[in-house]
Design brief:
46 strands; Immunoglobulin-like; 5 domains; mainly beta; 8-stranded mixed sheet
Amino acid sequence: MSNPVTGVEISVSPTSLNEGSTLTITCREQSLSQGVKLFILGLQKANDAGGYDNLLTYIVNFKPGDPYLPKWGTTIGDIQQRANVTSSFDAGKTSGFFELRINSGIFTFAHWGTCTLSILITSVSCQNPQIVEDIFPEVKRKGDTGYLNCTVSRQQNNKVNWIQPLGGVNDNWISSDTEILAKNEVVNGKQKYEVIRHVRGNDKITYTLVVNRLREEDSGRYKCTVFLVGKDQREWPYKYGNMTVQVPPTIKVSQTSDTVQRNQASDVTLRCNATGNPNPNITWIRADGKPLPDGRLSHRGHFLHITNIRNDDRGIYRCLADNNVIPPAHHDAKLVVNFKPEAEAVQDTVGQAQNRRFHALLECKIKGMPEPNLRWFMVTDTGPVSLIDDAKHDINQLLTHGTSLQLNDVWYSLKILNVQANDYGVYYCEGSNALGTSRAEIRLYETSQCQGSDCPLGFTTTPAPFHRTPAIVKNITRISAVLLIDMRDPPTQLTSTGYRISCEESQDKRLVFNEEIEKKDASWGNGTARFTLVGLNPGSMYSCQATSRTFLGQGWMERFSFMTSNPDVSSAARAPVRWQHAVGLLVFWTAIILQKAYMDQEPEH
């Protein structure tokens, strides 16, 4: 290029600049007059008014030994200056033709020389790096992996850092670009932290923070910031992202009521506390499904207040903690109410026949707190007599009996064995504690026939004879059988009104069938009752007995047996099994035939 300034050679590289490029200007001395003291180096751009806007200006002092000799020049003969275009140019002057002017002269500026070089700046930006997108929150369960994304534009040579703010000097500096700075322990086979770099279009880079094996302490805010070299930390761009680690609820037992005991008419407050993320909601219900003392089915809150306690308020109150993270947690608090015992007869009259080894069961429910002392009495002419558990009396206490018992309820029973005439009369159960005594009376009276669940079906004082005809067992499979039993009434006996068949497995005496058929039932035909047994075990022996009922009583038939077929076996084992089964059937029917022949020889009644 032409240079009107005598003795100075200048060069510029490159002549076409892009955003982020570095402009290098080199001035080389050729021959300078003694009057030349300095260079004024300027980079200018023409403006709309016909003048120039100064973008860069450097004053270069060439006096040997002068303290103002530029640090970037090692010798007077070779002076070089580099300017970063991105950080030096004004935002409003980002492209176009620029002129490089070098002016030389003496201190009086009497002589000037200028050389001009046009430089095309294609794209220049003066903005610092920016975090251009919001960091979306991450919500994950404990033990999962969490991700936070930080997208930066115009990063240049600056570093992107992930920080977990813990308070000043305690901040956890996790990473610089993709390098992990924090302690990166291995948790269940995975390193705690990773940073993944994704290059996107338009000079954007996304840094993804990966946090593996999430724990409760990983919840909170994370800071993404760009480390600007030479800038105060307060000028660094930054944004925050939230990591939420979901943790299922856990009951804080030390801050939760367990067993609380109060007197009637007093007040009580039950407390429940739980941890979890998000914070769990606490709901109170009654474990037995009954309404709360205030009539509601549930109560929301850490505290459940019960005023003017009644004895019906006693029981289990369940605290439920739920934050939509499975599984929820619960805790049972027991409210024990002190009250006077209350006795109630389950049935105030009980009947039973005497002298036939039948038993009578007397039962009552007693509740009270403190736990009452329970006793049975029989009323005699000389006064009540206390009964004890002995050969005549069987006394039991049950704390559970179906769903009819509440907390502190006791099912109290007295079984009178082999009822005799002197057992009839009035009995009562009694419960007593420090707050009082309560009793409930039960009268035992005589009946003509057996009463209760232990009685034989239809049994009366005069058993009725029964046809001793063996049963016919048909259609035997692995799990079922059909029984046909001849139950026609003998000419000399009363008409039967019903029949029952009961069968048990011979090995373990397990009752598998116990069913009654009325004579008018559809299964009755031509004096033959039909019973179908299902749910049997393959290859098992069963023993059955039939009974016939009249209004005078019932008669028994001798037991008979049959065997279900074996399950499928291999061909190698099938033959021995069939042989054994055939032998068993032969023995069985031989016994039946002999028995029938013997019975036919008996004279008719």
